[in-house]
Specification:
Layout lengths: L1 H11 L3 H11 L5 H11 L4 H7 L15 H16 L4 E4 H8 L5 E2 H14 L4 E6 L12 E2 L2 H8 L3 E4 L1 E4 L2 E4 L2 H12 L2 E3 L5 H6 L1 H10 E2 L2 E2 L4 E2 L12 H4 L41 H24 L2
Parallel strand pairs: 1-3, 1-8, 2-4, 3-5, 8-9
Antiparallel strand pairs: 6-7, 10-11
Helix pairs in contact: 1-2, 2-3, 6-7
Length: about 300
């Protein structure tokens, strides 16, 4: 009996010494309620309550430093979040290079400008597709400028060559546009090109919608890569929302009423009235009543103050 009571109160968290003292005083035949009352009267507490009562020692960390592991984990999560909310970028290398070279020279510097622009915005997934025959020495009918940039981008795993080969002296080239659209569609990214890919739109209805909604056109202004601020038109999303997976909706802008204070539409007016606080669409009669009530209420308060001794 003694051992069973000892085990029971030990499970509750009380110390063995306190339990043995109470059992010696009350006897082994004492009821559990009596033992519990005696333990409480003695002031002994369970170990779980004692640990909660004692505050945990605080660790001082230097201001502005992230010396703890939790701080490092939070920083890593923040960095991953900034790159995760941006869409993957798939660049039509031939289109960009020829646009920068005024459709006369395959300018590899134009591809570098486009890649740098997206890197500065924080995009981590950037792929450029170029036909493999552009790796060959340039000819008079197809000049190439700054060809070493292609090698550098290939080492960085950004540039991808689409396959091509020669059969009986003739070059057989795979359709690189299909690679571009397919990768962008699978990655749910953005296509950077001035080409509309009409043949691929007719080929696949899903690609048609994707090309219409995810095609980012651009311009080169004095060696500066410049996409439009409204990629889908005046009433479409902004460039930041277009390139992000989680677009931020703009706050609604109210258009001021052309009639101003002379407006007679009252609460039915759809325009903004700055003279109405908190956009309260009141009728003209309600506004006049509100203006009359304010001075009357002020006058009554003054009379009450004057009557007081």
């Amino acid at each position: 009996v003694h051992q069973s009571k000892l085990d029971f109160f030990c499970k509750l968290g009380y110390g063995k010494q306190d339990i043995c003292k109470v059992l010696e005083n009350l006897g082994q035949e004492a009821l559990e309620d009596d033992v519990l009352k005696e333990l409480i009267r003695m002031g002994s507490k369970p170990q779980a309550l004692e640990s909660q009562a004692q505050p945990s020692p605080l660790k001082l960390v230097a201001r502005g430093s992230c010396s703890t592991l939790q701080g490092l984990k939070l920083l890593e999560e923040d960095e991953s979040d900034t790159s995760d909310h941006l869409r993957p970028i798939v660049i039509d290398g031939s289109n960009v290079a020829m646009s920068h070279g005024n459709k006369e020279v395959f300018s590899c510097w134009g591809i570098q400008l486009a890649v740098d622009w997206f890197r500065e915005r924080g995009h981590t997934y950037i792929k450029v597709f170029v036909p493999l025959w552009r790796k060959e020495p340039p000819r008079q009918d197809s000049p190439v400028a700054d060809q070493h940039i292609l090698e550098e981008l290939e080492k960085q795993s950004i540039l991808v060559y689409t396959p091509s080969r020669k059969v009986k002296g003739k070059r057989v080239v795979c359709y690189d546009d299909r690679y571009i659209v397919k990768v962008a569609y699978e990655k749910d990214g953005v296509i950077v090109s001035n080409d509309h890919y009409r043949d691929l739109q007719n080929e696949n209805p899903e690609w048609k919608w994707f090309i219409e909604q995810r095609l980012l056109m651009y311009s080169f202004v004095s060696n500066r890569f410049m996409p439009p601020d409204d990629p889908l038109g005046r009433h479409g999303p902004t460039l930041n929302n277009f390139l992000s997976k989680k677009p931020v909706l703009p706050e609604p802008k109210w258009q001021p009423c052309p009639y101003g204070k002379k407006c007679t539409y009252g609460n039915k007016c759809k325009f903004y009235h700055p003279e109405r606080p908190y956009q309260a669409q009141l009728s003209v009669a309600d506004e006049l009543r509100a203006k009359i009530r304010v001075p009357l209420s002020l006058g009554k308060e003054e009379e009450k103050h004057n009557r007081l001794p």
